[in-house]
Each structure stands twice: as structure tokens, then as C-alpha cells.
Design goal:
It is built from 17 helices and 20 strands.
Length: 538
């Protein structure tokens, strides 16, 4: 259910700039605080309204939910959940552990979750992750497809006592418990509702860090919260997230000693990074796939034969050459629409894309012609230009397409100044051609790579693709209680994505990071996010 929705847009993203004003190494308050590159979140940091990487980093630091994903394996572990029980994969009884509090002293109770979920689902609250709650009974009343909401709360949520609540789904979903580590399902304190404006300005959570201050366009300082109840307490005194609009500038600041951690090494620096940082460079597999999405709301890209054009463009991209020459082993050519970190048992199928992802200029040219040609005669790939890495590979993709089609004007890049502007244009359905898309998993299930992006109406289905066969297979897979059968059914749905070429898979992305010699115990989790609470300073 990020799946049902949204997504942490693996933005590689906004990465960030700041003219180094010497705020590097020591952060905001002393030597045990580390500084890390960051980008301003697109939206206020409400758990149900954050669906991109930069905001997600903060939520991962200040909240803990019913489940938590193991930082090494990604496996969902009970955290605030004492138990999650079901006999039919539709009705769940959830017991919340006692002793947890928010950083303002409020107790975390069953109602903290129920109130948060009701708020996140409500149409009038305009939360981007609302669709995550779409499986819960009563969602059609609090978030109708059209018209005004006719209920304030989800009928499928019931508080039994301070530490117990029940969830009734509108269909079977055997994977539901494993989705509950995603930030949209985080609990919220009463302060969120009683003084919402103040909470948004300075969010209050129940995680190992608390927000101390935030200056948009500059930095956010998160301090270690000494009252945190969990076993994963922060091993440092805090983190200063520094805003950069250019990842190359962030990397330069790292080398100059003005920054402790960069978690998105720009492509232009990959040839130098091992020499610059040695064993302080991290390059590990992550649950991230990069694709090219299409605006299916534009009839030019959604007419009979268009799937041939899209498939032809896919076959015109020399993935192996681009990943070798530009990304230097930090990317792997994609052969399906998921990620190798899932493993075969989890749904990754090497080669599912088949010939459609194989570089074949002759077939590419033929298919584009059979499909009626490129709309408008030219592909313009839109991307955000505020990181140094995207232009290089976009240009390489276009050069590959131009060479394959024998037309040096068949493809050009179409830069947008900032990540926020880029995402806003996408959200306003202003794309007129393919656009850069990236998906960073919320939890390690094949469902999370498919439903949020391609299911009709899903909030991260930015191109508004819709296919009844795909939707039907996803619904069948979600209702399947046997994991092996569920995965196989999801793969059938993925074959529909392939046959319609709903998006062009480009490559699987490793997580990359570099850090200063002040730090130790630095690691990236399977979501390519630094495990901030484990980092030691000094």
C-alpha cells in the first residue's frame, strides 16, 4: 500500500544546496551532532501527507509505528505492536505496547493510531497518502471518488481499550500487517489536532529524535530525544539536515570538511569517489528502481498503437552502456519493474521484461513506426535539474534513442528548475511526454512496486494509467493468503504492465553515500536512507 498509493519518490532527489557557511561538521550544537545533505520536503511533514524521500527521512527519525523495517534486511518487525492477530486476513485485532510516549509527554494509545488513520483517510484533509487506508472499511465514505465525504471516521476502525483496536478491511489482504511500518500509519498526539498549525511548524513524534528547529531552504536540526522508549536509541546527540540544491556542491562540502554525510553521491563524482573517500564510500543494493513514466491523460500517448511506441523507445535505450559509463556500477539494467532486493521468493523475476528491455535499434525503429510515430515528432523527457546527476543520464538516454532511430532530434531533455516544481507540475498533470520517475520501496513486498504506481487511482500513479486486467490481478493477489500464490499473481499483473509498457524500466539503483572521518557505524538501509540513529560521532 504504498501501495495503495504513493510513494517516496526516489528523487535522488532534491538534493540540496547551501552555500557552505561553515555549518558543516559540528551541526547546530556541539561535536556529537552530525550534518547531512538534504532537500526541503515537498509538503508539510504530516505522516499521511509525505510521499517523497526528503520528507520521509525526517519521518523515519521522529516516528515509530506498529512495525519497523529491519535496517539490514528490510523485514517487518513488531515495534509498538504487541500483537496483530487475524483468522481471515480481513479482520485484525491490534494490541499496542504500553509505556510509549510522544516527545511532548503524551501517551501513545490505540486512539493515537485510530485518530491518525482517520485523519489521513479523510478527503477534506487532502493527504497525499490517503489511499493507503483504502482497504479499510468505510474508506468510500470518508474519501469518495467524487462528491463530499459523508463520514468523519472509517467504520472499519474501532478502539477497544487504551491498548487495543480492531481493523476491518473491505477485502482480504494478507500482507496488511507488513505495510504498517510505513510512515503513513504512524500514531499522532492530540497536539496534532488541537493546535495543528503549531504541530506542522514543529512536528512532535515518538521516535528517537525530536525536531528542534527548521528554516526552510536552509536546515533542520533534530536533537536526540532522551525520553525515547525504544531499543534503537540514537547513538549521537542529533542531526542537522542541510538543504542543498546541487548534489555536487554537497559533495564538495563533504571533502572540504563542511559536511559529514552525503547520501546521494552525484554521477559526476563516481569516478573519483573511491580515491576521495576510500572505505568511507558506501555502495549497497537498495529497493529503488528508476523508470520513465508517461502522461496517459494526454491522448497522444494513450491511443491505439501507443504501446508499440513506448516499447520501441524502451528497446532504443542501451541500458548496459549507460549504467557502465555514467553510473559506474551503482546501477544495474532493469529487467522487470521491481527490485532484486526482494529476492525471487519476494517477487523479483530477472528477465520478466524480456525483449522489451533489450537494446535492439532495428526493432525499436520498426515498433515506433508501427505505432504511428512519436507524438509531435519528438520525445521531450522532463526531469528536475537541481541535482547534478539527472542531466547526464537523460542526455545519454536521448543520445541512445536518437542513434537507434537514426534521428538526432528524436529525443531531448526538458529540465525543470527544482524538484518541488517538477513534482508540482506532475501533480497538476502538465506533462506532455515521458518524465523521470523513481520508486523507493516503502516495504519489501512486490505489491509495493506495482499497486502504488499502476493501480487505477493510486496516488503515485502520476501518469494516470488504468487497466482493468491489472487491477483485477492485483485485487486477486492481495486476497490470496498463500504467499507463493500471491507473488505469482502479482507477477501476472506485472506482465500486463510489460505488455502495455505502462512505464519504461531503466535500472535498479544502489544506495550510495560518503561520510567524513568524524563518523563511524554509517550504513544505508534497504530503502537507501542513512540509519541515522546508529551513527556515532567522534
Amino acid at each position: 500500500m504504498r501501495g495503495r498509493t504513493h510513494a517516496r519518490w526516489a528523487a535522488g532527489a532534491a538534493a540540496l544546496a547551501l552555500a557552505a557557511t561553515g555549518c558543516g561538521g559540528s551541526g547546530s550544537s556541539g561535536g556529537a551532532v552530525l550534518s547531512s545533505s538534504w532537500g526541503d520536503p515537498q509538503n508539510p511533514l504530516e505522516p499521511a501527507n509525505t510521499n517523497e524521500v526528503q520528507g520521509g527521512k525526517v519521518l523515519d527519525m521522529i516516528f515509530r509505528g506498529l512495525k519497523k523495517y529491519d535496517p539490514k534486511t528490510g523485514k517487518a518487525q513488531d515495534w509498538l505492536a504487541r500483537s496483530i492477530r487475524t483468522t481471515d486476513s480481513r479482520n485484525f485485532t491490534i494490541e499496542v505496547k504500553d509505556g510509549w510516549t510522544f516527545s511532548n509527554g503524551e501517551k501513545v494509545t490505540a486512539r493515537s493510531f485510530v485518530d491518525a488513520w482517520n485523519y489521513g483517510a479523510g478527503l477534506r484533509n487532502n493527504q497525499k497518502n490517503a489511499y493507503f487506508f483504502g482497504y479499510i472499511d468505510g474508506y468510500d465514505k470518508v474519501h469518495p471518488d467524487s462528491g463530499e465525504q459523508s463520514a468523519d471516521t472509517l467504520s472499519g476502525l474501532k478502539v477497544v481499550d487504551d491498548h487495543t483496536f480492531t481493523v476491518k478491511l473491505n477485502q482480504k489482504f494478507s500482507g496488511f500487517p507488513d505495510t504498517l511500518g510505513y510512515a503513513a500509519f504512524a500514531p499522532l498526539p492530540r497536539a496534532f489536532f488541537t493546535d495543528h498549525a503549531a504541530w506542522v511548524k514543529k512536528p512532535v513524534g515518538n521516535g528517537p529524535y525530536a525536531v528542534e528547529s527548521y528554516t526552510k531552504g536552509s536546515q533542520m536540526y533534530l536533537r536526540k530525544w532522551d525520553g525515547y522508549h525504544g531499543p534503537d536509541k540514537a547513538q549521537n546527540d542529533g542531526v542537522t539536515l542541510m538543504v542543498y540544491t546541487d548534489s555536487n556542491t554537497a559533495y564538495t562540502d563533504l571533502l572540504a570538511g563542511n559536511l559529514d554525510l552525503v547520501d546521494d553521491v552525484p554521477a559526476a563524482q563516481l569516478k573519483n569517489v573511491k580515491g576521495d573517500l576510500g572505505d568511507r564510500y558506501i555502495n549497497t543494493p537498495a529497493g529503488i528502481i528508476q523508470t520513465l513514466a508517461f502522461p496517459f491523460y494526454d491522448k497522444a500517448w494513450n491511443k491505439p498503437g501507443s504501446e508499440k511506441v513506448r516499447t520501441g523507445l524502451s528497446m532504443a535505450i542501451n541500458r548496459a552502456q549507460i549504467t557502465d559509463t555514467i553510473f559506474r556500477k551503482t546501477r544495474t539494467p532493469a529487467t522487470d519493474w521491481t527490485s532484486p532486493v526482494l529476492g525471487t521468493a519476494g517477487g523479483f523475476m530477472d528477465g520478466l521484461c524480456g525483449k522489451a528491455c533489450a537494446y535492439d535499434p532495428d526493432a525499436a525503429k520498426r515498433l515506433v513506426k508501427e505505432g504511428g510515430g512519436i507524438p509531435g515528432g519528438q520525445v521531450k523527457i522532463t526531469y528536475n535539474a537541481d541535482t547534478g546527476s539527472h542531466k547526464e543520464w537523460i542526455d545519454a538516454v536521448c543520445n541512445s534513442i536518437n542513434n537507434a532511430l537514426g534521428n538526432d532530434k528524436a529525443c531531448v531533455g526538458n529540465p525543470v528548475g527544482t524538484f518541488a516544481d517538477f513534482r508540482n507540475q506532475i501533480g497538476q498533470h502538465k506533462m506532455t511526454g515521458p518524465f523521470r520517475a523513481g520508486w523507493q520501496m516503502d516495504y519489501p513486498l512486490i505489491q509495493n512496486f506495482l499497486q502504488p504506481l499502476y493501480y487505477t487511482g493510486a496516488s503515485s500513479n502520476d501518469g494516470k494509467w488504468s487497466d482493468k486486467d491489472f487491477d483485477r490481478l492485483v485485487d486477486q493477489a492481495n486476497a490470496e493468503t498463500d504467499t507463493t500464490k500471491a507473488v505469482a499473481t502479482f507477477q501476472k499483473a506485472e506482465e500486463v504492465v510489460r505488455d502495455r509498457m505502462a512505464a519504461i524500466p531503466l535500472w535498479y539503483q544502489n544506495g550510495s553515500a560518503g561520510y567524513s572521518d568524524r563518523l563511524s557505524h554509517v550504513a544505508l538501509n534497504p530503502f537507501s536512507v542513512p540509519v541515522y540513529n546508529e551513527i556515532k560521532v567522534g
